[in-house]
Write a structure and sequence with these properties.
alpha/beta, 12 strands, Rossmann fold, 7-stranded parallel beta sheet, 12 helices, about 300 residues
Length: about 300
């Protein structure tokens, strides 16, 4: 299969590109810079110059492919409405290029769209008032193409896709601990944090492209880790105390109020249906193992 990939030069993207090529697929990747193009070439992919805002580039990339994997997502996190509009517009352009073809179209969302306080499954509805509600419009735009003979599916990634070079939530937590001299969690820290190793997530994307039925929602998460355990592992590794913060104190302790809210968010998810549907089984290091023994510290 010739796959057009957006976001292939980011953090998770290179692992996905590598997984696809190792499975015998060819990959063309959207590249908005010389550095992105060079990264894709080093992985064995063909660069396709453009960006999420270059709709003609998205269209031509999708039209030339046997399937599309959309992972790119960006913009100013202080303006989530703008990020939502850019993502939805890109998805609509990519999907229209595949309409009435039967080709696969896999788009990316996040498990933080799910409701707080209970373990959600792939069949549960996302929370339209939740902290990641700005990702829901993209999900719906992609899945709508299932009615236009596109094998459309959505992969919801855990908020932490861990592995070497991670610059996301856990890296920010470590940086804040180093800066402040304490490894903090919110409240009692019992809130559960979904996580998946980058290489395991890459397999979910490949399997979705190869065989997920139209309209599938998939959860790329291997575990739900109590946040207090994450902060404690960081504390042990850095020789710092692990401390509890109130939500009010957390809003100024961490890099932004949004990040502080996310660190206190309890939204565990199940991936049982994804495992059954795709025959997927996570095989790589757990989050706590990666924090203790990887490059986070």
């Amino acid at each position: 299969m010739h796959v057009f990939v957006t976001g292939g030069s980011g953090l998770t993207g290179p692992a996905v590109v590598t997984e696809l090529i190792a499975a015998g697929h060819t990959v063309t990747g959207l590249a908005r810079s010389d550095a992105s193009a060079a990264r894709l070439e080093s992985l064995g992919a063909t660069p396709h110059r453009g960006s999420l805002d270059d709709l003609d580039s998205l269209r031509t990339g999708a039209e030339a492919a046997d399937g599309v994997l959309h992972m790119a997502f960006g913009g100013d996190f202080t303006d989530p409405d703008d990020m939502m509009r850019r993502d939805r517009t890109a998805i609509e352009v990519l999907g229209k290029a595949l309409a009435h073809s039967g080709k696969p179209f896999v788009s990316t969302s996040g498990t933080l769209v799910m409701p707080a306080g209970r373990e959600s499954t792939e069949r549960d509805e996302p929370d339209t008032a939740g902290i990641a509600a700005f990702r829901i419009a993209g999900e719906r735009a992609c899945l709508a193409f299932a009615e236009q003979d596109v094998r459309a599916s959505v992969v919801r990634l855990a908020p932490t896709v861990h592995g070497p070079g991670d610059r996301g939530f856990i890296a920010w937590l470590v940086d804040t601990a180093r800066r402040t001299g304490k490894s903090a969690y919110v409240g009692d820290g019992a809130n559960r944090w979904p996580a998946v190793h980058r290489l395991d997530a890459a397999v979910v994307f490949r399997l979705a492209l190869e065989g997920a039925p139209a309209g599938s929602v998939l959860h790329a998460t291997a575990e739900n880790v109590p946040f207090r355990s994450i902060a404690g592992t960081i504390a042990d590794g850095l020789g710092l105390p692990a401390v509890s913060l109130t939500p009010e104190a957390a809003s100024t302790h961490f890099p932004s109020p949004f990040i502080a809210t996310a660190y206190g968010f309890d939204a565990p998810v199940s991936s049982a249906l994804t495992r059954e549907l795709l025959g997927w089984s996570p095989r790589h290091a757990s989050l706590l193992d990666d924090v203790a023994n990887g490059d986070y510290l």
